[in-house]
């Protein structure tokens, strides 16, 4: 691994976070569309809205992160992808805007009829966006995006067998993740009847997503043979196996109503899909263009690594606090765990001393990892040195994250 590969690792991590976090946001809107218009349907729609509203903007930060790192670190590839796939990416952006507007308008809706219209518009945009993004990825995976400004066909680049099946998998996966997540949220809020309704949706959409994934392998065999070989017999095979096992485990956990572990295994199954595609695709980014050939100059890559590392220290604690408040119910108007809104009592003096000492060690350890990471990445050119540098920077992020995390978030741990 060289420095040119490091931003691609950031992009993949951001893409996994976007699929695992923003996917349920789109899926929740899809389930709002199928909730029905009776009283139970209204409760289901309200839960889907209330669960996602506090975090939907934060979830889309990952898409901005992916785009920013991509155009900075691999400008030639980004320009080729954005110009050839401009229609698909425009539709995805339009869907995100409509979805965001629906959040703002729903709170001011006058009556059930107006609210239903907003939910319908939101659901339509939530199908459009993951489908368009999946279709764009399918265009890249099938080699239909050549190098150059709008060098590929504006339509067939994202309307082709691989793109269509990838888009369908993206929509089904979003609905599946949302149903699993909302089942757990319903149980946490003391609404078991809603949990059962989402459980049935999780099982149905999970089977559908699995069937589409199997069909996707057949499509790849005929339309994108290099990716198929990479997944079935190449570097991506371990990730493919991990995705299948995690998907089966998730369905089993949902069957026995173990929603919290199902939440993580479902996210793992989706992450394995993204990793498998990346391993099957590498080192070719676009036809005739490898990751190393597309990489920006050395100084730019170093700046990207520094910016992402520094930004992580700010973003990760903020996201941890946001999700802690959301899952605890504090941002749902007090319908969840009211204890999270009460200021915790301070620790005993001995415990406080241990906390301070531990935090000091964490800060020093994080700074040491930072120095080691930059040293190995910027001074040495060997692949092993860059691997150590990346590991050190990841250590810096983890230690720094724990060091700056507010003490009350750590609870009694």
How would you describe the overall organization of this protein?
The chain contains 15 helices and two strands. It is mainly α. A hairpin with a 2-residue loop joins strand 1 (284-286) and strand 2. The model is unreliable at 334-345 (pLDDT under 50).
What do the pLDDT scores average to?
Answer: 84
Shape: globular
Distance, first to last CA: 37 Å
| Oligomerization | single chain
Q: Give the strand content.
A: under 5%
With helices defined by DSSP (H or I, 4 residues minimum), what is the helix count?
A: 15
Task: Give the uncertain stretches in residue-range form.
Answer: 334-345
Kindly report the spatial arrangement of strands forming the biggest sheet. Answer: 1-2
- Strand tally is 2
- The assigned structural class equals mainly alpha
Rg is 22 Å
Order of helices and strands: HHHHHHHHHHHEEHHHH
The main sheet comes to: 2 strands, antiparallel
Q: Helix content range of the residues, please?
A: over 70%
């Amino acid at each position: 691994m060289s420095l040119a590969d490091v931003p691609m690792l950031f992009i993949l991590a951001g893409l996994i976070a976007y699929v695992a976090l923003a996917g349920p946001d789109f899926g929740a809107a899809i389930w709002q569309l199928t909730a029905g218009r009776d009283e139970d349907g209204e409760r289901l729609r309200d839960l889907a809205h209330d669960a996602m509203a506090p975090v939907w903007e934060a979830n889309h930060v990952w898409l901005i992160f992916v785009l920013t790192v991509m155009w900075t670190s691999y400008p030639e590839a980004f320009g080729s992808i954005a110009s050839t796939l401009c229609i698909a990416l425009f539709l995805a952006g339009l869907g995100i805007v409509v979805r965001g507007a629906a959040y703002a308008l729903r709170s001011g809706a006058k009556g059930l009829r107006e609210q239903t219209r907003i939910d319908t518009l939101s659901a339509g945009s939530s199908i459009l966006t993951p489908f368009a993004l999946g279709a764009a990825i399918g265009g890249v995976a099938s080699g239909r995006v050549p190098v150059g400004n709008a060098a590929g066909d504006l339509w067939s680049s994202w309307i082709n067998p691989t793109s269509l099946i990838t888009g369908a998998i993206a929509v089904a996966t979003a609905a599946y993740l949302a149903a699993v997540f909302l089942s757990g949220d319903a149980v946490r809020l003391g609404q078991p009847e809603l949990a059962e309704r989402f459980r049935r949706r999780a099982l149905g959409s999970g089977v559908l997503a699995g069937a589409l994934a199997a069909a996707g392998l057949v499509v790849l065999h005929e339309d994108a043979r290099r990716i198929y070989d990479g997944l079935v017999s190449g570097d991506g095979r371990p990730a493919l196996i991990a995705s299948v096992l995690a998907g089966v485990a998730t369905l089993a956990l949902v069957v026995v109503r173990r929603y919290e572990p199902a939440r993580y295994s479902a996210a793992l199954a989706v992450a394995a899909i993204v990793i498998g595609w990346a391993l099957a695709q590498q080192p070719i980014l676009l036809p005739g263009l490898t990751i190393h050939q597309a990489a920006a100059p050395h100084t730019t890559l170093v700046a990207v690594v520094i910016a992402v590392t520094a930004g992580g220290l700010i973003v990760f604690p903020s996201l941890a606090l946001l999700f802690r408040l959301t899952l605890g119910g504090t941002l749902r108007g007090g319908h969840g765990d009211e204890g999270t809104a009460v200021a915790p009592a301070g620790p005993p003096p001995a415990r406080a001393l241990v906390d301070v000492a531990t935090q000091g060690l964490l800060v020093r350890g994080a700074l040491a990892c930072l120095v080691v990471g930059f040293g190995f990445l910027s001074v040495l050119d060997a692949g092993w040195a860059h691997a150590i540098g990346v590991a050190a920077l990841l250590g810096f992020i983890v230690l720094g994250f724990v060091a700056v995390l507010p003490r009350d978030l750590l609870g009694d741990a």
